[in-house]
Each structure stands twice: as C-alpha cells, then as structure tokens.
Amino acid sequence: MGLTRNRRKTEPEIVIARDSESSSSEEEEEEEEDDYPLSESEKEDEAVKIELEKSKAKGKAPITVKLKKVCKVCKQPGHEAGFKGATYIDCPMKPCFLCKMPGHTTMSCPHRVVTDHGILPTSHRNTKNPIDFVFMRQLQPRIPPIKPPYVIPDQVHCAVIRYHSRRVTCLEFHPTRNNILLSGDKKGQIGVWDFAKVYEKSVYGNIHTVQVNNMRFSPTNDDMVYSASSDGKVGYTDLETGTSSTLLNLNPNGWQGPTTWNMLYGLDINSDKGLVLAADNFGLLHMIDHRSNNVTGEPILIHKKGSKVVGLDCNPVHPELLLSCGNDHFARIWDMRKLQPGESLNDLAHKRVVNSAYFSPSSGTKILTTSQDNRIRVWDSIFGNLDSPSREIVHSHDFNRHLTPFKAEWDPKDTSESLIVVGRYISENYNGAALHPIDFIDSSNGQLVAEVMDPNITTITPVNKLHPRDDVLASGSSRSLFIWRPQEKTEMVEEEKKEKKIVICYGDGNKKGKKQKRGSDDEDDDDDMFSSSKGKNIKSQAKTTKSTRRKKA
What residues form DSSP beta bridges with 65? Predict the structure, then answer.
C-alpha cells in the first residue's frame, strides 16, 4: 500500500499497519509509486516529512507520518515559496529572482515598479571620447532626432494552435512576401505558413533530425533558406518543393558520444563577402561560400574552447564587423579581415550566459544583448568605450530549462533604433489569471512602452519576431504560432474579412509528442485555451479572445 499524503495544515500522526512479511516485489512497486512526479495539486500542498517508527506489535511494523510546513526551495520550515494562484512567492533565504540581489524578494524588489514591471535603466554614461564626436558627425544624421510614434501590435489577428509537434525555437519572415512566416521547432521541422490565408501551411520534417536553432534566407534566391541545427548540419532548403541539401555536416560518422557530438547554433550571412557563417558548441566558427555552397577555410576558435556560440550577427553597414555571443559569458566583436583566435576587437563581459547579441538594424552602431542574469544591455556606440554598457535594463527572462531562450530583438522598422521586443518569464496576475506578457521596451531610457497579452495564451512566449515592413508581430508559444496586429488595423481587416481565423492542429503533434518522453519538455505538454474536443482543423470567431494591453503614457 502506498503512503497516504494528508493535506491538513496541522501536524497529525497517521499510523498505517503494514505486514512485515511483505514480498520484495511489493516494496519495489511502492518505490516506483513514490518516484512518480507530483501533480499540480500536490505541488501546492505542504511538503511532507515522513518518520518511520518501529513498534513491538506482533508481526506488524506501523508507519507514522508527520506533516510539516517546509519551503519547496530551501527545504526550511516557517515559510513557503513558489506560485500561489497567479502570484509568485520568493524564498526569503534566496536572492531576488528578478534582479538577483539579496535582501528582498521579487514582490518587494525595487526594480519591480507597477507601471514598468521590473524595468529600470542605469544612469546614462556620457563619454568624451574623440571617436564619439566622429560618430555624432558622420553616422548620427542617419537617425532622426525626433522619435516617431510607436505602433504596437497588441491584438491577436490569427493563430495556428499546436502547429508543431514540439516547441517553437526560431522564427523568420520572408524577405519579399509579407505574409510568409517560417518557423523551426525542437524536433527539427521547418514550417511555412501563409498567415494571410491562414489555412495554407506546410511542415517539412526531412531537413533535420533534432532542434532547429537558426534560419536565414539566401541573399540570391528568396525561395531558398539556410538552417542550423543541433544535429550538426547546415541545411539548404527549397521552400517550394521541400527538397533539402546538406552543406555542412559536422557528424559524418553519426553518434560517437556526447563529448564528440557537434551542434550548430549561431547562423548568419555576410552578403558582401559571400559567406554563410555557422558556429558550434565547441566555440568554433565555420564558413561556407554561398555562391558555390562549399565549405571554405578551417574552423576558427572565436569563443572559449568547449563553449556554445549561440549567436552570430553581421553589421549591416560595416560588413567586416561580426558580433558573436556564447555560454562563456561574453559577446565579442570581430574583424572579418583578420579572424584569429584571441584577436577579437572587443570583449563585452556579462555575468551569465549571453542568449543573443545584435547590432542595430539601420546604422549598425548600437549593440543589444540579452543575458541570463535578467539583464538587457545596450551599448549606444560601437566606436566609444565598450568596457561597460550605456544601459542595463532589469527584465525577467531567466529560466531553468525546457524552454527556448529569451532574446530581445530590435524593431527593424523603427528609424530611431530604440524599440525592442522580448517575452517575459515571470507571470503577472491579470484578473486572477497568470499571464506572461510580451514587452515592448524603449532601449534609449529603459522604459516599458507597452505589454501585450491575450487571456487565452497562458503559456510562456519566448520567441518573438517583428516584421521588417509591416506592423506585425509573430510569436511562438509552446507549439503554437500567433500573429499580432495593432487593434485599429485588426478592426479594419475584420470588417473586410468578417472573421478572424484560428486553426487548431491535432493528431500528429499529440501522437508524436507522447512517443518522445525522453526529451519531452514541460511547456510542450501544456494545454492551450484554444483547444476543442473535435479532432479536425476548425476555424472560430475570435470575438471571445480579446487581447489585453497595458501601455505607458
């Protein structure tokens, strides 16, 4: 008989009689039952402390169960931590989960302001470097002195629920077709979705065998896309036919153990030099000539040996500059004309893993990084002093595992190069529901411009991509894709089309997800609020899924 858990807040003693001559097989069954993960309701209950006391009863050994209130984080009595309804309670014995500083909890964190939700800029650093004056005279005129009004996509226009069989890992808009969105997932599939027609979608599963980490369109052919995957391959796929070829394979002999398995993460294209750049989990940079699709040169060590290089970004104005970031807590600037190990132009130090690093999309003079220490860092000029960032923005995007890393990205349409978008990890209590908003932040001062959410999207949204030409935001939450538009434009489209379409995919995702328990993640198994009991693709009116937006005046 398995042990009984009592949920009362008092400390009762429960005596359970057990036969001392029970077989070993029954004991093994009890151990297996105890190893099962706790359900959500059991996790909310108080921790259980079991003390076994032997008595001298005839042939029986009673079990005494004592229930005591202990913290789930530090295992100490007298307090509790974790989610209580829609509110997260920090352990007072640990540092603040938001700013990582001791002495207070997340709820009382000085960086957690109601209107800004944990976003606070550091003081702006004013350097008097002569190079700064060159920047002001030659490059600053490209940036308009007056910021245009921000246009925020704040309402879900259409969605595909459970589109992928595993969680979404990356998104990319088509360079010429405004309504085509590409998405990669943890299983190695690449999806092509025409969100203007909603139902026109396809998924290619023959390109990679495991997670797709990055995708880039070919600069010479809009129908071809490069992809980097954890299977150690760079794929080159025709989106019209779905046929794919492998340009780089770092594991030609297959699986030889974890110490030799190569995985590709960072990916970008240098059009001026005709190179496809890919970085692996051993700190190496690989180069492919995209004109001949052949590997060129030898791999170059650009980060600490044995560390993942998770991001690559080529400067849009100065093609000889390359920005990389990795698990060695650094973002590094390189000169493509003299790529040599240990000869980076600048090393931007961080306190924890750097998830992403990007040059600003227009002038290429700013740098935006996202780190696991819950900081978004901004450098206003790559020609000035880069020893410390111009601003540090406290933002909740640290996570444990089973989640795609959060990456703050620029708005490519913003001529002032200040608006960024990033998902939030810590949930907020919105009318009793725990929702994870998507934040729009002004990187010039660190202020929260807007936070967008939908009451039906209860999962975390770590993957977000702003359209380079339209006022559209694409989001990947768990296995689903969402398209956001400004509320005014959404209403105009609704008047024309009379309905907003949401497609729900069944069967393939659920069946395949159950077979892959070994690598399953928690968020993939979350049930979306859009779900239905029917087993076919359906479309529904979205009047009941009205979005919520909080905007700072």
Answer: 14, 50
Mean pLDDT is lowest, of 146-155, 186-195, 352-361, for 146-155
Query: Is 551 part of a structural domain of the chain?
Result: no
The predicted model gives 9-32 an average pLDDT of 43
How much is the pLDDT for 109? 77
Note whether 464 and 474 are within 8 A (CB).
Answer: yes
Do both 153 and 80 map to the same domain?
A: no
Q: Within this chain, do residues 304 and 453 fall inside the same structural domain, yes or no?
A: yes
Query: Would you say residue 433 lies in a domain?
Result: yes
The string of DSSP codes covering 207-244 is S-SS-EEEEEE-SS-TTEEEEEETTSEEEEEETTT--E
Question: What residues have CB less than 8 Å from 22, skipping those under 6 apart?
Answer: none
Number of CB atoms found within 10 A of residue 61's CB:
16
Same domain, 237 and 344: yes
Q: Which of 435, 451, 347, 432 is nearest to 118 (CA)?
A: 451
Asked whether residue 79 is assigned to any structural domain, the reply reads yes
3-state secondary structure of 383: coil
pTM: 0.75
290 and 404 belong to one structural domain:
yes
CATH number for 297: 2.130.10.10
| Integer CA distances (angstroms), 553 to 144, 414, 431, 449, in order | 22, 19, 22, 8
Q: Do residues 89 and 155 share a domain?
A: no
pLDDT at 397 over 50: yes
28 vs 366, more confident: 366
Residue 309 and residue 393 in one domain: yes
Last residue of a domain, one of 444, 471, 488: 488
Q: Which of 488, 510, 536 is the last residue of a domain?
A: 488
Backbone phi and psi for residue 398, each to the nearest 5 degrees, phi listed first: -75, 140
Mean pLDDT across 59-73: 67
What mean pLDDT do residues 126-140 have?
54
**Tokens at 524, concatenated:** 């993939």
21 against 419, higher pLDDT: 419
Distances in Å between the Cα of 342 and the Cα atoms of 220, 306, 333, 339 are 33, 15, 11, 9
| Domain of 258, in residue numbers | 149-488
Pairing relation of β-strands 447-453 and 548-551?
Answer: antiparallel
Same domain, 303 and 359: yes
pLDDT 10s digits, 460-490: 999 999 999 999 999 999 999 999 999 875 5
Residues 184 and 324 occupy one common structural domain? yes
Tell me how many domains the chain contains: 2
Asked if the model's pLDDT at residue 282 lies above 50, the reply is yes
DSSP secondary structure of 184-208:
EETTS-EEEEETTTSSEEEEE-SS-
Query: Does 295 map to a domain?
Result: yes
Give ∠ CA 354-356-361 in degrees, rounded to 5. 145
CB 533: neighbour CB atoms within 10 A?
A: 4
Burial class from Cβ neighbours inside 10 Å (0-12, 13-18, 19+) for residue 196 reads middle
Strand duo 502-504 + 155-161: pairing = parallel
